From TrEMBL:
GO terms for cellular component: plasma membrane. PROSITE patterns: ABC_TM1 (PS50928). It comes from Kribbella shirazensis. The chain crosses the membrane at residues 28-49, 90-115, 127-146, 158-178, 199-221, 274-293. This is Multiple sugar transport system permease protein/putative aldouronate transport system permease protein.
């Protein structure tokens, strides 16, 4: 009689990491629930895209909102808002604010985070304490306005960029990431004669691409979506960013005329199509950038937040 010692009974796994696997009814309920949540998110987005691309006759016939265009695709709404009028100007302003603001914010945040991560830095503890205190106590609206006014930044794009170019939370995340860098690499570079600037630029920054990408995404999205500070500090409508134009002409329902868009009134698409096209223009840049940053997202945030 032969005995097999390596043979094990075939049993379906019922435990995963100590937790029971969900049964079929439970999985069905979860699938239906998640499908419903996805539908709530996706269907309005499809409606916005469809309305912006639908012909004027179909939009008028549908009463202003089209879920699926059946009479073809019409790009006249996009041609109208990008013809050189208010929306085009606002798009250029938002691009300038986002590009310049993100670059400034990354430079200041990374350099401050590196300085605070080095134990021998002059004033390390007091400055770090000030950064931590700013996480708990935010300035009020009136003091912030008075500071911007005293610096002569009112009705200027710098009023939207400068006051928020350093985030205390992002500084703490970057500092924690720098603290977690291998000390052996930094010590060996010091022995080879590397200065503090070379340590930061040639060692710290290349090893922190993940956290820099995530922090850059945070800053970029914040600058691109900023409208409240522009509403407070900027009176000249030619300096309005895209989000303030979106709020004015889409949320508040103010109609865009031909003189605002730079086209003739006779060729003007329905207002609903124009509003949905503005909404799509404000969403597309972030949708294009996020897939390239997403692979760094979890690594950058979790590593920077846990270490240190």
């Amino acid at each position: 009689m032969r005995h097999s010692t390596a043979r094990a009974p075939k049993r379906q796994r019922t435990m995963i990491d100590g937790m029971p696997t969900p049964g079929l009814p439970e999985r069905i309920v979860k699938g239906v629930f998640l499908t419903g949540i996805c539908a709530l998110v996706v269907f309005p987005f499809i409606g916005v895209i469809s309305t912006s691309l639908a012909p004027a006759e179909e939009v008028t016939k549908a009463g202003g909102f089209v879920m699926f265009p059946t009479e073809g695709i019409d790009l006249s709404a996009y041609r109208s808002i990008l013809a050189g009028g208010t929306v085009t100007q606002a798009l250029l302003v938002s691009a300038f604010i986002t590009a310049v603001g993100t670059a400034m914010a990354l430079i200041l945040t990374c350099t401050l985070g590196w300085a605070l991560s080095r134990r021998g830095t002059l004033g390390n503890r007091p400055i770090l304490l000030l950064v931590l205190i700013s996480l708990l106590f935010n300035p009020g609206l009136i003091p912030s306005y008075l500071v911007v006014q005293q610096f002569g930044l009112l009705d200027s794009l710098w009023a939207v960029i400068v006051p928020v170019c350093v985030s205390a939370f992002n500084v703490i995340v970057v500092r924690a990431y720098f603290v977690g860098l291998p000390a052996e690499i930094i010590d060996s570079a010091r022995i080879d004669g590397a200065s503090e600037w070379k340590l930061f630029w040639h060692i710290g920054m290349p090893l922190s691409k993940a956290v820099v990408a995530v922090i850059g995404l945070f800053y970029g999205v914040g600058y691109w979506n900023s409208f409240f500070s522009a509403m407070l500090y900027i009176d000249d409508s030619s300096k309005w960013p895209l989000q303030l134009v979106l709020r004015t002409y889409v949320v508040n329902g103010v109609e865009l005329g031909g003189q605002d868009l730079g086209v003739g009134s006779e060729a003007l698409p329905p207002q609903t199509s124009i509003q949905m096209a503005i909404l799509m223009i404000s969403i597309i840049p972030i949708l294009c950038v996020y897939p390239f940053i997403q692979r760094h997202f979890a690594k950058g945030v979790l590593t920077g937040a846990v270490k240190g």
